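hi! just following up on the protien thing from before. the input was this:
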Amino acid sequence: GGGNSYDFGARMLDPRIGRWMSPDPLMDLFPSQSPYSTFDNNPIFWIDPNGAAPQSNDKDKEKEKEKEKTKVNVLIGPKDKTWSGNEKTKDTKQKDVDAAMMNFISNAKSESELIVIEATNIDDALVLLKEALGDDKEIENLFIASHGGYKNASFRIGNNGANGSLYHAWSVSNDKKLKKLGESLSDNSNVILMGCHAGSYHNGGDKLVQNLSIALNATVYANQSWGWSPQSNLFYDDTWTNLWGAFDDPYYQAGYSNPAEFPYASRKQAYDNAGKWTKASPVLEKGEAKANLETVNAVYYKANGTIGVSDFDWSETQENKVELKKVKELKD
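and the predicted 3d structure came back as:
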């Protein structure tokens, strides 16, 4: 009857019987198929936009395309090549720290592809990432190298000065640019915040890591102590030895900051939690995006390009207990 047929352009379809009302105009190309069959009798896998020839479902094509993407690792650091955020500093020690940190970032090694992005801020990082990833790459592990904050957990994308993009626990949840960054991540990806105290529980670091995990739909790791201490050595290569040689301070070698600069009472949680990281894993509960929190041992970057969690508990070692006792005994 009238109104029961669909016009696909090349021919008409009767949906009541799932058959075309005229033979396939390209039937000579498909000798094994009936010229009246629809979608090769498999409407889940095939589509036929104009009634002339079936083709693979677009969703299947997208899935295949995603499977073909190469997974890479990305480290985002400051474009101004300073760790202090002050290009004009006259402090010789700070210049040495800046140089050592940037040397570490620039020379980070991996058997799998590791892309180093030096950005001013999140906008700059998104542009550079788009250029670096193209259409055939996606991020498996994202390292964000920046300062943190002991009193208020934070991290920056880009420069460590005022022109970098600064994030706290309350600012990451609805940030559209961070969500855009999340679109570059692969399934089951990891994000590692390398800033000090970004995962500590005393300063809101737990909420920062949790909210970021939800925003990016990725597993997020952050240090509960000093982010660059030897017990949190992500890359395990000679670069690390060179980095800490710039400080010439035995306390750094033990995993702590200098107690003369930061007494135990002023950084209690950082000293007590040396070697501990916070991990947030995204989950979906009753349709709502959430993230589970747990404390893990130091995170490290394996040579094959994956993230591991150490089975070595630095906080329980005799070396740690001896050094921590020395720090506590010093007068504030």
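The first helix runs from residue 58 to 67.
The CA atoms of residues 109 and 140 lie 16 Å apart.
cheers
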